[in-house]
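For anyone still unconvinced, we reproduce a single protein record, the chain in one-letter code, the fold tokenised, and leave readers to judge:
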Amino acid sequence: MDLETNTSDYTHDGTLDLRGRPIIASKSGKWKACAFLLAYEVFERMAFYGIASNLVVYLTTQLHEDTVSSVRNVNNWNGVVWMTPILGAYLADAYLGRYWTFTISSLIYVMGMLLLTMVVSLKSLKPTCTNGTCNDNQHSSLQIMLFYTSLYIIALGAGGTKPNISTFGADQFDDFDPHEKQLKVSFFNWWMFCAFLGGLFATLALVYIQENLGWGLGYGIPTIGIILSLIVFYIGTPIYRHKPKNVKSPTGDIVKVVFTSLANWKLKVASDPKENDQEVQPQHAITNVGTTKENQTSIFRFFDKATIKEGSSRVPCTQAQVEKTKQVCGMIMIWLVLLIPSTIWAQINTLFVKQGTTLDRHIGSHFLVPAASLGSFVTLSMLLTVPIYDRYFVPLMREKTGNPRGITLLQRLGIGCIIQIAAIAIAYTVELQRMHVIKVEHVVGKNGLVPMSIFWLLPQYALIGVADVFNSIGLLEFFYDQSPNDMQSLGTTFFTSAIGVGNFLNSMLVTMVDKMTGKNGGKSWIGNNLNDCHLDYYYLFLFGLTILNMGAFMWASSVYVYKKESKMVQENGNYVPIEGKIIDASLGL
């Protein structure tokens, strides 16, 4: 077989096997490789939501924390879980690669789960309570310390698994193969579909097991599941595709452009900046930059000053480096206007759950619905919406718009934001009804049961789920797709960090609102007794924030410049990159 035939058998995007050798396309990657990754995603999501969805209940019923403290601690832990991926992604992009970063981090994750299961299973370490009074002795303090230690070990492990497992899955599709590229359009939809399955089991089954059969069993089941799924993951190793390791820091170009631009801030840039130096591209690299009208009119054109040769005190940057910096700045702009939607999402595992604990949770005369189980309706609405979106909505819109995705990435995010606005408006309305019932029925005390079915909360949960099909999946796809090609693990941390900062922001808002509204003897909007506070005012406050944020999102979308995509052409049996085209248009608002 000649060299040309051999070359055509390999992937065209430069992916390699684990030993660094070119890998045969027909025997690797695609959905058959992703199948080995999906098992881990299902069980990891089961473990995460098994903890996150019922954590506020554990903190208030087992560790006896008050409402504000428990909400703050849940948000802080969630925030760390979603922020640590920045470190994990940087290690993957700059040093270890996605496979080995995931391997090390998953072992840390399992260690945290094992410790957590052990801690909650040790009956002797739990605080002893008599007549409603709990003795916070040395043993309970030790349990609290070990409990939080295990949580943050899990958060550290999640830092290396979250950004790399999904990105590693996307790497299994060759962007230069038309068939595989088409398969990749649906990848993130079905990836998140599997994640939702894990979340559904957690909110339906695990939270019931935790509250009725024991917290140790409730945490032990997903722990065993993760261990088994890791075995499945490593069975698929021979057919995985790996991106070549970077030869330099992925953030080095950006730092250089920023400092060079600042050094040249007094200089004027030419109206048509050209590359001063040709940047050497690795074999099969995807070039995502080019001098186009869209790039020249970017709101970040200040960075064009980095290309100036004359009078510069620094070595000028290439146009490729400048466009990479503009792209990252554009992503930061979009990230900023997605923090409020992430704050709304944080209500699912905090105030929505506490709200549910005050309502009638009976089905029949014996079965009591765990308040956290209502989170399953978020997942169910996602599971129903993803196939409809992927199989019907996308093909329909593709015919109308000509866009392979049906609608642009930012349009998808915008629709999600609008649905979230509707969800928080309904939450406000339902809370008004709850307060009305409390007044009419004269419900008193923080443990007083409001004679109103918990299923009144279903619409707000379901709408949050539909919104997440547009927002969560759209966020992950947007930041993976729009990231510079040597920063795609780091780029997906824009997605995770948006959720993390949203949780921190919610923690800050809850604390701030509680202190401001409860000072001088006033009635706090978010008090320890939800039957004697004004949670409706807090929801109205969040509604106002979402409206204001929607205006900021529309502006950011109208000025955002999408990343360019290169195509490959075959010349003398070899594939070479040519200048691409803009793959999405702005919202046109």
Q: What stands out?
A: Confidence is low (pLDDT under 50) at residues 1-5, 273-296, 568-589. The chain has two domains: 9-245+337-568, 252-327.
